[in-house]
């Protein structure tokens, strides 16, 4: 008896539709026309004899079985991609395509230093970068959308292997007018929780900062403002409060041309560990370890 199996292309179409929730955007992501993508998903439904997607004029809704098949499709696609990864891993190191997510509190401060070295020493590496919050990046790693993630620990990213790169101290940033003669370090007890500006939920730096202070009331009283450190620094520069910054941001000049000063936070836990993480047992583990060495040396 002849058995007809779904194609990887059909599975890609289905996963793209789930991710984008819209036939047009999914088709753009797959570099095909909308009619091609729609026909491919209909062929898949006909092949397995069930409806996976309920189509209306306004909404694309997956059936419960459709959701389960999408999860399985992600794993199948990831396994297929790892076949190519195995071949690349057997060839030249750090060559071919690699998709890396980087969190926003690292990307603008670290990437400008590391990318020139990567391009110079590994010209055959095609590195596709995506900036996204830690939770989204880790989810993408688990479902195969991303190959590795450059993030800050501690953070529960699932079943991953991790290579720490370096420790990044936390600094307290404040208007210079608040402390004309600031001490060498700032103690958590001296931070006014009603004036503390932090990144919104989803950024692990907020959690690292609160954990370093060991003051639960800070989380409840702090004003959660902004999606970027640059925005919060401008608010501090205008006298609206104080914030916490990673050392890499301070060294990269985020306070240049402002009237904001920064001093290290005096705490036993006032650090975050920058690390590269990837899925456990990945066939490209050797590449990721080599990439981690390059990142650590260039940082």
UniProtKB/TrEMBL annotation:
Keyword Transcription on entry: yes
A single MF term (Gene Ontology): DNA binding
Xref: SUPFAM superfamilies: Periplasmic binding protein-like II, Winged helix' DNA-binding domain
Domain of life the protein comes from: Bacteria
Keyword DNA-binding: yes
Keywords, sorted A to Z: DNA-binding, Transcription, Transcription regulation
Domain (HTH lysR-type): residue spans on this chain: 6-63
Pfam families: HTH_1 (PF00126), LysR_substrate (PF03466)
Annotated GO CC locations: protein-DNA complex
InterPro entries for the chain: LysR_HTH_N, LysR_subst-bd, WH-like_DNA-bd_sf, WH_DNA-bd_sf
Similarity annotation: Belongs to the LysR transcriptional regulatory family.
Name listed for the protein in its UniProt record: Hydrogen peroxide-inducible genes activator
Species of the source: Sphingomonas panacisoli
């Amino acid at each position: 008896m002849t058995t007809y199996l779904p194609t990887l292309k059909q599975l890609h179409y289905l996963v793209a539709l789930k991710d984008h929730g819209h036939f047009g955007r999914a088709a753009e992501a797959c570099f095909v026309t909308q009619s091609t993508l729609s026909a491919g998903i209909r062929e898949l439904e006909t092949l397995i004899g069930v409806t996976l997607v309920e189509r209306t004029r306004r909404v694309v809704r997956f059936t419960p079985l459709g959701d389960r098949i999408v999860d399985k499709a992600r794993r199948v696609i990831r396994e297929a991609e790892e076949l190519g990864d195995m071949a690349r891993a057997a060839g030249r190191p750090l060559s071919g395509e690699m998709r890396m997510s980087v969190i926003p509190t690292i990307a603008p401060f670290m990437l400008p230093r590391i990318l020139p070295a990567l391009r110079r020493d590994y010209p055959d590496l095609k590195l596709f970068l995506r900036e996204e919050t830690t939770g989204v990046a880790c989810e993408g790693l688990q479902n195969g959308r991303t190959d590795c993630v450059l993030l800050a620990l501690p953070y529960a990213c699932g079943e991953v292997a991790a290579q720490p790169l370096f420790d990044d101290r936390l600094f307290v940033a404040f208007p210079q007018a608040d402390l004309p003669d600031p001490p060498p370090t700032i103690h958590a007890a001296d931070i006014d929780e009603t004036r503390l500006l932090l990144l919104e939920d989803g950024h692990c730096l907020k959690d690292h900062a609160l954990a370093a202070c060991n003051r639960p009331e800070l989380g409840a009283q702090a004003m959660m403002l902004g999606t970027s450190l640059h925005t919060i620094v401008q608010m501090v520069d205008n006298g609206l409060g104080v914030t916490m910054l990673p050392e890499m941001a301070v060294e990269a000049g985020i306070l240049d041309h402002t009237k904001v000063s920064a001093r290290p936070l005096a705490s036993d836990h006032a650090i975050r560990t920058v690390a590269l993480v990837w899925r456990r047992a990945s066939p490209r583990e050797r590449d990721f370890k080599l990439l981690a060495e390059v990142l650590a040396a260039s940082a």
